[in-house]
Design goal:
heterodimer, A: alpha+beta, 8-stranded mixed beta sheet, 8 strands, B: mainly alpha, 4 helices, 57% helix, 0% strand, globular
Chain lengths: 194, 75
């Protein structure tokens, strides 16, 4: 593993590198199937644009971006981030792109979101994660449901996707709800004076 | 318990219950993709009245592992 930030069972996250930017990353962003549910991202991408984005990460204060690496093969299979981080009110959004299509099976996507939540709640001390999905995106909906995100609203017919307008469903997960499913281990009992 | 797990797997993955064994997994059931894994988790939680942790959800990728995890919850 190179420079791991957090390690799961299937994947680990690390800071993106320039090699990532000039590798397959820029192709994923151009792929319409990959990006169909990502907020009307219709622009073709290029290596130059990807390097520009990569360079912008250096000064980002409200965006934490990770490269997703498959542990078994050490392949860069996608990117994810915690976005719009509000350090005062302690909430943020999240986004995941599994660029390499063969890794969209099994529990890869779920583990990526699960690791992002762990970073948000336990490392960054966020209180709430806000998210959303386009109503026909059954995959995102099912992951968010399993993770106990609560539906808190909806923008009707907001996004133009595959030839029709679709609702954007808004969801939220609070730290207390997350902790119910992922309780913290008891703190160690330290020997010594009281 | 195993019979109930097989019933749920059969229903979610839309395969005959007779074709499901303890070794059934995403490698042996074509429809066991990421979406169906999430549906399976929700169905198992409802059927057995349990809540899986994130770690357990990542690990229950065969009928045998589902059974082991449920046994750990004293089902």
């Amino acid at each position: 593993m190179y420079n791991p930030y957090i390690i799961g069972r299937l994947v680990y996250f690390r800071h993106p590198t320039e090699e990532d930017a000039v590798g397959r990353w820029h192709e994923w962003i151009s792929d319409q199937e990959t990006m169909q549910y990502v907020g009307n991202y219709v622009w073709p991408n290029s290596k130059e644009k990807q390097i520009e984005f990569y360079n912008s990460l250096r000064n980002a204060k409200d965006l934490m971006t990770f490269s997703i690496i498959d542990i078994a093969t050490e392949r860069h299979i996608g990117v994810c981030n915690l976005s719009s981080i509000n350090w005062v009110s302690k909430f943020c959004g999240l986004a995941v792109i599994i660029g390499e299509k063969e890794f969209r099976k099994g529990a890869y996507s779920f583990e990526v979101v699960s690791l992002l939540l762990r970073i948000a709640f336990l490392t960054l001390n966020m209180r709430t994660i806000k998210g959303g999905y386009i109503r026909s995106n059954e995959h995102s909906r099912s992951i968010l449901q399993v993770l106990r995100f609560r539906e808190v609203g909806c923008f009707r017919n907001l996004f133009w996707v595959n030839g029709r307008y679709e609702d954007h469903v808004l969801v939220q997960l609070d730290r207390e709800d997350w902790l119910q499913r992922n309780p913290l281990p008891a703190p160690p009992i330290l020997a010594g004076k009281a | 318990m195993l019979a109930k797990i097989k019933k749920v797997v059969s229903m979610i993955m839309k395969v005959p219950i007779d074709s499901i064994s303890e070794s059934s997994s995403p490698e042996t059931i074509a429809d066991w993709d990421s979406l169906h894994h999430m549906k399976l988790v929700m169905a198992l939680e409802e059927e057995f009245g349990v809540v899986f942790s994130d770690q357990e959800i990542i690990e229950i990728t065969s009928v045998e592992k589902i059974a082991d995890t449920l046994r750990g919850k004293e089902i």
